[in-house]
Design a protein that fits this description.
This protein has 367 residues and is an alpha/beta fold. It contains 13 helices and 14 strands. The chain has a six-stranded parallel sheet with strand order 4-3-5-6-7-13, with helices on one face. The protein has a six-stranded mixed sheet with strand order 9-8-10-11-12-14, with helices on both faces.
């Protein structure tokens, strides 16, 4: 239908305006198909009492007519917000963390494809975190929750279950048997990196780990220990350093390792950020990362390519994990599937760059 010009005369004034082509409404689709508006609405909103054939017919005609559903009206009609919240860890500012940013990007992209939204929540304390949970439980603005950095024994799991909030965690806890999670095989990854360093000729292999309240820190520590035990390597006092998840933490921990009577020839680090801090410590003492001491990080962040030499790392899925988390939380909400049936363990792999090399001849002799 062409735009129709209408002239309205008001004594000496003549006003012309255009009524543009109307956006199709449910009524128009209903008239076209000789169905009720209620049937059209239920077909477009994927109600189970409408046959697949009818849904397909309705959507074909709706698309042909240029129908654009009102997402807010749809959400009101089906009684849910179609919004997922991601809870930023409050112990450190995470907005600048490349890993968290890529995880969020993956979730946002996948949710958007399915017509869902992502909200970012940033509590400043445990108390504020709990208050956020209560608010989510008390309204329908958020349908599900995602959080990472699970604790070894995480009380949030029980709280969210009691509040009946659908959730999935990026990471596990010892209390995660009945909850939905996606995690990486941290223990296996650190066993593998210890084996890799052993095969390069290293026997003095240290570990800079994260705070032991986090379950991933414990898993990575256990992987290193199992690798050292498997190859009958000594773990002298001081070879396991606990670091904050920061550049400064890596610097401080590497300083402590270098001050030992027998410093390590290789160090596996809990994160790329910590590893880059460790590299900085070496340079301060006129040592070359990868030559004097091999350094391996964890996460596979892009920043690792731009340090000198480029950081060897254990790379884990980031954006892909975000995609999968989004798919799984939608599945959890829409199907009512048991949370314990949604538990995915992803693999991490070693990405060799420039900081993992055999120990120098003089250091091999001293091992």
């Amino acid at each position: 239908m062409q735009p129709k010009a209408i002239s309205v005369d008001n004594e000496s004034a003549s006003v012309k305006y255009f009524i543009m082509k109307a956006v199709p409404k449910l009524q128009m689709i209903a008239q076209r198909l000789n169905l009720s508006e209620s049937t059209i609405s239920r077909a477009l909103n994927d109600y189970s009492d409408i046959s697949k054939e009818t849904k397909k017919l309705v959507w074909n005609v709706a698309n042909e007519m240029g129908y654009q559903p009102n997402i807010f009206a749809r959400r009101l009609a089906i009684g849910k917000s179609e919004t997922i919240a991601y809870l930023l860890p409050f112990d450190k500012p995470e907005s600048s963390n490349p890993f968290v940013n890529e995880l969020i990007a993956g979730m946002s992209s996948e949710l958007s494809k399915n017509g869902w939204d992502l909200n970012i929540l940033s509590p400043s304390s445990e108390e504020e975190e709990i208050e956020m949970f209560k608010k989510i439980s008390g309204n329908r603005h958020i349908s599900g929750l995602v959080f990472s950095r699970t604790l070894v024994n995480d009380p949030r799991l029980e709280i969210l279950n009691k509040l009946k909030i659908p959730f999935i965690t990026h990471g596990r806890s010892i209390s995660s048997e009945q909850t939905a999670w996606i995690d990486v095989d941290n223990e296996g990854a650190f066993f593998e990196v210890t084996e890799h360093l052993y095969n390069l000729g290293h026997r003095l292999i240290a570990h800079i780990g994260g705070p032991l309240k986090f379950n991933f820190s414990v898993q990575r520590l256990e992987g290193w220990k199992k690798g050292m035990d498997h190859f009958s390597l000594q773990m002298p006092d001081g070879y396991h350093q606990v670091s904050e998840l920061s550049f400064e933490g890596g610097i401080s921990s590497m300083n402590s390792l270098l001050a030992l009577k027998q410093p390590p020839t290789a160090v596996c680090c809990v994160s790329d950020v910590v590893a880059i801090g460790a590299m900085h410590s070496l340079r301060r003492q006129n040592m070359t990362p990868g030559a004097d001491v091999s350094i391996i990080g964890y996460d596979g962040l892009e920043i690792g390519k731009y340090v000198e030499p480029p950081l060897t790392t254990i790379t884990q899925p980031r954006k892909e994990a975000g995609n999968q988390i989004a798919r799984r939380i939608i599945q959890l909400i829409e199907t009512g599937q048991e949370p314990r049936e949604i538990q995915d363990l992803l693999d991490a792999t070693i990405l060799r760059r420039g900081t993992d090399n055999p120990p120098t001849a003089d250091k091999q002799e001293n091992e």
